Request: fold
Amino acid sequence: NVTRGTTPELTFQLPFDAGALTKLSIAFEQDGVLVLEKKLEDCTVSGQQVSVRLTEEDTLAFRQDGSVLQIQLRCGIGEKRLASEVITATVGRILKEGTL
Reply:
C-alpha cells in the first residue's frame, strides 16, 4: 500500500544481481494512465534489490478514490530487456490535502 502525501521507500527483489542493470523504468499507473515513472538514477541498488523513495509530490499525484495503483519494472542489462509482472497496490487516503 502507498499512502498519499507520504515518502515511502519501495524495495523490489530481483532474480539477479541488480548491479548489472544498465537501464530501469518503474512505471506507476492508475486506470490506464501513467502517473509516475522513476528511472535507474532515482534508485538505490544493492545485491538483488532495487529501492526507490517517493516524494510527497509523487504520492500526492495518486488518486485515493479506490482505484488500484499498478506498478511494473522494466529492466535493461546491455541489450537484453526484461519486465516484471504487474504489481498492484492500494492508495491510502489522507484527510488534509497538500504537502506538510
